[in-house]
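Input (structure):
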């Protein structure tokens, strides 16, 4: 017992087997370390007379795993007691920047040393607001470590702000135990190593918000993610978030800012009853999305670095509706592809003139036998392969075309397009064949595959010298057929030229001797 205790940088005091009391001042300087034991949770020193450097290390090893108290700002905090009960961290220091919340300037590590699982609760009670700040990483380590963000009633709002990474290594991260509201704002990566991340029990809501300024990732190595129907997560990072594990979400995902990157292996699956909100050019899924259920759904898909300038992010959704013969277990997976549809194969569907040279969608029916109404969309600022001509210029001739794996063999009803040349949608009711689909045209309108830069003709004696130049828009080859008419109504072919992308960069010419 003393009045003033200062531990210099690099020094460590181990007080795990007794209680250390500094009645006035307590300082941890630099990288100093302090191991607290005893049965209480109080920090040495009187309120306001505690200085814990941001790089210092404070280890709580008492017999309780929580309690109310007047906490200073910690450096690195290690909560590793031999627990005997569940407990709650409450900062009752009115001078703290967030009254009711704990402040950790370094990393916060929860590592229960008890023989059975116990909870450390960031909030509890009937009426309170807790706002905790962790400037470093939040680490939940060990099989008996359970972090609960909110254990309170409907009026409790508990927020944990993590500026670093969130690591669950064998432990449990639980949003709510009852009916409170729990929020984690994470600026770093989330990694679950053989642990569990779940919304929790009761009617409370749990949100994980990705709020970083650098690219973030979600990683799972042998652990379990369980996202309940009352969970609302947000993508709010302009640098983007990458999914490095397959996840199934049963609640709501809000797209605010930034791209959510997925792959066929690391797939985002929206469960039956789940909701997607706010998808736009600023925030969408760059990769495949899967949906379970037989209710209407708009796949929030798009691609990065598209458009005439080559660097525009674009939200280009595909939607399905009006399920016929559908079951709640039905599953569809969709993705937007920024490549030429015409390059996939030839057109054999009678009446289909051409398909997009810019893009297409895949829509696979994974489970079930339902037929659906399909709707594709376009945006001039993003879809346009060339700035010289519009992507769409004649809505009545637009259709949805289907590729059967070998050729473009069918298309949907005509006169289904709505909107303008700048943006709109085109539909195919009652689709029963799947993947891939493209916007197509039943006439030569809608200059999707190529752009005609110029076409001139000059009389040379008894012949005509014809010259033209085209731009091939994201298509590896194109075939151009010259036709001649003697009456302006009936045309017949006089020459055919097939060119690859390199040849398309050069002018073309043909002499019509007749």
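Output (sequence):
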């Amino acid at each position: 017992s003393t009045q003033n205790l200062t531990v210099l940088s690099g020094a460590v005091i181990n007080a795990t087997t007794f209680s250390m009391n500094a009645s006035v001042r307590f300082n941890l300087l630099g990288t100093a370390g302090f191991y607290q034991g005893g049965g209480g949770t109080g920090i040495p020193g009187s309120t306001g007379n505690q200085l814990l450097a941001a790089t210092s290390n404070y280890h709580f090893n008492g017999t309780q795993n929580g309690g109310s108290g007047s906490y200073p700002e910690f450096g690195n905090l290690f909560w590793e007691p031999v627990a005997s009960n569940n407990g709650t961290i409450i900062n009752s220091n009115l001078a703290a920047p967030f009254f009711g919340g704990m402040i950790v300037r370094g990393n916060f590590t929860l590592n229960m040393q008890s023989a059975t699982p116990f909870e450390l609760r960031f909030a509890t009670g009937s009426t309170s607001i807790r706002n905790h700040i962790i400037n470093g990483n939040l680490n939940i380590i060990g099989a008996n470590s359970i972090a609960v963000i909110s254990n309170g009633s409907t009026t409790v709002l508990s927020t944990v702000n993590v500026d670093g990474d969130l690591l669950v290594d064998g432990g449990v991260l639980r949003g709510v135990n009852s009916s409170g509201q729990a929020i984690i704002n994470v600026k770093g990566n989330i990694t679950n190593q053989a642990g569990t991340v779940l919304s929790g029990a009761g009617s409370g809501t749990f949100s994980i918000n990705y709020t970083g300024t650098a690219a973030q990732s979600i990683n799972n190595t042998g652990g379990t993610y369980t996202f309940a129907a009352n969970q609302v997560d947000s993508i709010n990072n302009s640098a983007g978030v990458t999914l490095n594990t397959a996840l199934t979400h049963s609640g709501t995902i809000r797209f605010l800012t930034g791209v959510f990157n997925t792959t066929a292996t690391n797939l985002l699956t929206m469960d039956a009853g789940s909701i997607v909100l706010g998808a736009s050019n600023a925030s969408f899924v760059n990769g495949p999305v899967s949906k379970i259920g037989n209710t209407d759904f708009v796949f929030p898909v798009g691609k990065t670095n598209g458009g005439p300038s080559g660097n525009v992010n674009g939200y280009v959704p595909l939607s399905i509706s009006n399920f016929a013969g559908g079951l709640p277990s039905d599953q569809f997976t969709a993705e937007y592809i920024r490549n030429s549809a015409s390059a996939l194969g030839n057109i054999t569907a009678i009446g289909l003139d051409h398909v997009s040279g810019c893009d297409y969608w895949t829509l696979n029916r994974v489970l079930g036998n339902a037929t659906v109404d399909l709707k594709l969309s376009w945006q001039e600022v993003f879809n346009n392969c060339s700035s010289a001509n519009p992507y769409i210029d004649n809505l009545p001739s637009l259709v949805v075309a289907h590729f059967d794996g070998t050729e473009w063999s069918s298309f949907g009803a005509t006169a289904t397009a709505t909107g303008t040349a700048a943006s709109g949608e085109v539909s195919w009711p009652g689709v029963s064949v799947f993947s891939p689909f493209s916007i197509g045209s039943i006439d030569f309108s809608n200059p999707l595959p190529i752009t005609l830069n110029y076409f001139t003709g000059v009389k040379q004696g008894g012949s005509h010298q014809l010259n033209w130049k085209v731009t091939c828009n994201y298509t590896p080859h194109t075939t151009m057929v010259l036709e001649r008419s003697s009456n302006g109504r009936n045309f017949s072919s006089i020459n055919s030229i097939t060119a690859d992308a390199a040849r398309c960069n050069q002018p073309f010419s043909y002499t019509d001797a007749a």
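Notes: The mean pLDDT is 90. The chain has one helix and 51 strands.
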